[in-house]
Write a structure and sequence with these properties.
The protein has 7 helices and no strands. The longest helix has 49 residues, at 63-111. With 165 residues, it is mainly α. The protein has 2 domains: 3-61, no CATH class; 94-160, no CATH class. Helix content is 67%, strand content 0%. It is elongated and about 65 Å long. Helix 1 packs antiparallel against helix 4 (63-111) and helix 4 (63-111) packs across helix 5.
Length: 165
């Protein structure tokens, strides 16, 4: 959409929806066309790219393109709100299982040689702190449980922990 207005912002910034970029896009929606003023929204490391930004922001956005950009930004905001809402709901629903998952993972680290080897690998080779390794393994155990529930297959250490096998 921006390319159609000859605005090459994405070629200069690493995150088109980052804070600086978003401020620039909002300013464009509100009618700002001066590349210097738009580049003035740059923050932190992006400030070093001011000249590149000014060149990238030289374009001509029509009223229709501004309307479309506004619509896209509104839609992105809506989707971000939905993601937050769903993340909150998932966290709420999983909360009763957190302690169980942690205890189950600890038991697996102590009793299952594959999980124990993976934990030791995380601590020794990857230089993770023990608790960080346990948390990563909690995630792996959770994914394993979901996979087992979906497939109704039995446990296979080679399938679940291939790097430990």
């Amino acid at each position: 959409m921006l390319e159609g207005a000859n605005i090459k912002l994405a070629s200069v910034v690493s995150d088109i929806m980052g804070v600086s970029s978003r401020d620039m896009l909002e300013a464009m929606v509100n009618g700002e066309t001066d590349p210097e003023k738009l580049a003035g929204f740059a923050r932190r490391t992006m400030k070093k790219k001011k000249e590149e930004l000014e060149l990238a922001l030289r374009g001509s956005m029509t009223a229709h393109q501004r309307l479309m950009l506004k619509s896209m930004l509104t839609h992105i905001d809506f989707l971000n709100e939905q993601i937050i809402e769903l993340d909150t709901e998932v966290a709420k629903r999983l909360d009763p299982f957190r302690r169980f998952l942690y205890l189950m993972t600890m038991c697996m680290v102590m009793t299952n040689p594959d999980v124990k080897a993976l934990h030791q690998h995380n601590v020794r080779e990857k230089k993770l702190k023990k608790m960080k390794s346990i948390m990563k393994l909690c995630g792996k155990v959770a994914r394993m449980l979901v996979g087992l529930a979906k497939s109704s297959e039995g446990y296979s250490s080679a399938k679940v922990f291939p790097q430990a096998a």
